[in-house]
Amino acid sequence: MEISKEPINFSNEINDLYNNIVDNAPVGIATLSIDGHFMQVNQAFTEITGYERSELETMSYQQLTYNEDCAIDDFNIQQLLNNKVKSYRLEKRYIRKDDKIIWVQVTRSIMRNPITKKPLYFIAQIEDITSRKQAEKALQESENLFRNVIDNAPVGVVTISLDGQLLKVNQAYCHITGYEKEELENMSYKKLTYAEDMTIDTANVQQLLEGKIHSYCLEKRYIRKDDKTIWVQVTRSLLRDSTTGMPSYFIAQVEDISERKQIEKTLRQSKELFQNIVDNAPIGIATVSIDGHFIQVNSSLCKITGYNQEELTKLTYQELTYPEDLSTNFAKVQHLLEGKASSYQIEKRYVRKDGKVIWVQVTRSLLRNQLTGTPLYFIAQVEDISERKTVTEKLQKSMEEIADLYANAPCGYHSLDANDFFTRINNTELNWLGYRADEIIGKMKFSDLLTPASLRIYQENASQFKEQGFLNDVEMELTRRDGSTFTILMSASGNKESGGRYVMNRSTMFNITDRKRTERALLESEERFRNIMDHAPIGMATQSLEGQFLLVNRALCEITGYKKEELEQLTFQKITYPEDLILELENTRKLIEGKNSSYHVEKRQIRKDGTISWIQVTRSILRDTTSGEPIYFILQVEDINERIINREKIYQLAYHDILTGLPNRQLLLDRLNQAIASAKHHHRFMALMFVDLDKFKHVNDTLGHDAGDKLLKEMSTRLCCSVRSQDTIARTGGDEFVIILTEISSPQDAAILADKFLKIVKKPLSLQDQQLQITASIGIAIYPNNGLDAAELMKKADMAMYMSKDAGRDRWHFY
């Protein structure tokens, strides 16, 4: 290529303009010859290179250019010279005069002859970009560092476009979501977000865009590539353009918190379970501040104290504690606070809301700050032990009573070792013997106290007792200190060790001296009683509570017809007439229950030969003088059969018609009054009939009184067979009968019976070989229609009977 060597001629005007522009340019400007020498440079260029103008105008651009950058510069110059480009721009390094390497941006163009198009010179604009290059380098290093940090971050980091598309993601984010980078980039974050969590996410994004918040952090769910739902914590911020402030993109940090959420859930469930256990614990549980105020309480503590939760949390434990128990409680609390104990347990009293004092067992521990050891609060477990305290006190009292009972029991107690020496003895036995305990225990044998006869009994039973281990109700005599004797009834039990060797025994004994004396007296008394009983003129016996004859005398055997041996095998129920048994059993029950001490009754008995006879029984009960319990009956029996027969004869004569045996007027009036009372009580009717035999006097006059008596007896029999068992027929004199019909439904019932009576009376009968037909006239009075008392009804029935006679006889008539 041919390069022009012609000098350049500038006019003064052009030179002035050029110099003005170039010298005041903010960037370096230079003209260079085609061979690369600087022709003209401006002030800015000298400042960039550190050379003076005069120095630069003797230099080529190659001298300034960093050796490694020459090749690229030369290549671009050739492109200009060959007219392949109009200009070019490149960044390269200069070596300043002070040897400092700087970065410059060179924009070079070529000036050509407008006619020949031959290259004339180069024009270069040089800008010092060292600061920018340093900034770019720092930025690149920062970006490299940032990328390294992001790529290796333990949490997911993602940039998101304003429309929600994922731009860049790190490896941790891929791991969290299960997707590859290529799959995630340009995917919408909404595709990953659980549908129910979109609303709150969208709302926060909107606030970021509106500048209301700088960032937000929330927990939400992601749906991984494998469709598994996980929990993540997202911290999102918005990057804005530093110049315009307009939103550029979002940066989000995403942390997989599924495990933490599961732990939180488990912890929450654990807390809920713990709280449920606390709330439903059978004992009171509370947290208490260091100064004693209740912080939290469960329902059991409320139940124990009678306060509700709100009331309790306004109180201190000191206000609940019984005043006398405060000092002990305070000392225990101090030990906890001073670290002398980790917990304590105490029994003390609480004063309930209702004022009742109860016993509680409190177990208290202290919770401290794990780092500083500072006391935080107390944990108290409270159990109501009032019932247990009561039981304990009762048990203590019972043990004291047992000890007292042992010492002062009404019977003797002692224990003997294998060699028969006393090891223990109660006060009762000591008092019997007249010794002190220290005179007997370990010094005397039981056999030392026995009389010779009792010693033989004791020795005879000793080997068997040690073998079998028990002895029951053996009578023996003991010798007192003063030489006198007394009788005991002793029972004993032996103890053997595991190998079977006899080691000791315990004995119980009763002083039966008085009882033996009483038994002898009783035996003598029974012999006297037996003698009296055997010779008594009336029947006598003792009976068991079940009615069994125990002892019977000769007179009772004669009354019943049984032999003594036979009678003692029977019960009173067996020989009592059935109709009288209910009353007898009722009297027996009242005796046993103590309602009566004795009773007196007339009843019938069935003798051995089957005949029935009347007896008078006086029965009393013998009871135990100590317990009052019934033991047996004492029976006195008198034969009153003849007396009863005579009494019945007298009764018959007094209240019955001698001829017919029917009730007479006196008995009639008694029964009539009873019938009126019953009808009144039951609101029923009652009828009274007067029946008069027509022309009875004619029979008497023609056939005689004997025939008349036979007629009356026959009519009596006929009428008796025609009435009910509850009705009464009476003969009040002559040929007149009176009938009481009790509790009829209506007066018509009386009319029906009256017709029946007329027919019965009119039946023919034979008297002294004559056939007779008798009629009757009947008058009827009705209660309460015709009267309310016996006299009124008798009067009205009599009047009605005469109405029947006046009407022609053989008929009945109501009053």
Automatic annotation (TrEMBL):
Protein name per its UniProtKB record: Uncharacterized protein
Obligatory cofactor(s): Mg(2+)
Record Gene3D superfamilies: 3.30.70.270, PAS domain
Domain PAS: 14-84, 142-212, 270-340, 398-469, 525-595
Domain GGDEF stretches: 684-815
GO biological process, one term: regulation of DNA-templated transcription
InterPro entries the record matches: Biofilm_reg_signaling, GGDEF_dom, Nucleotide_cyclase, PAC, PAS, PAS-assoc_C, PAS-like_dom_sf, PAS_fold
GO MF term list: catalytic activity
CDD domains: GGDEF, PAS
Ranges of residues in domain PAC: 88-141, 216-269, 344-397, 472-524, 599-652
